[in-house]
Amino acid sequence: MQLSKNFTLAELVESQTATRKNIDNTPAPAVIANLARIAALLEQVRALVGAPLTVSSGYRSPALNRAIGGAASSAHVLGLAADISTPKLSPRALAMLIRQSGLVFDQLIYEGTWVHIGLSTGAPRNQVLTARFGAGGTTYVTGIV
């Protein structure tokens, strides 16, 4: 199913972890509607970059989200987030470009080797963070550092 010009449902639900662990990652109709929203935002990012994007994680069923250790409140579970990269830019440069673009998003997180971009069910926060991974777990700092 085509969600937008360049993004398919299959692409936004594909998960190697789900396949490996035999976890059903089929979204409900309401989640598919949210995936169409995130696909529309990804189209805007793709146009901004001028190159294709790779989606490493889109929708995660609650079982899949638990299996990978995702936050219980993750926008991925609602189909409102995607982890992306592009061969054209480093993840940091991609995050900076999105932050400076004026695109409307709820959350943008520079995660080192990818960028998380998400929408919300309410008013967008335009929150920009950098993830820091350490022995004590993941912490977040405001901005892109």
UniProtKB/TrEMBL annotation:
Domain Peptidase M15A C-terminal: 5-117
InterPro entries: Peptidase_M15A_C, Zn_M74/Hedgehog-like
Transmembrane regions listed in the UniProt entry: none
Designated name of the protein: Peptidase M15
Biological source species: Janthinobacterium psychrotolerans
Highest classification ranks of the organism: Bacteria, Pseudomonadati, Pseudomonadota, Betaproteobacteria, Burkholderiales
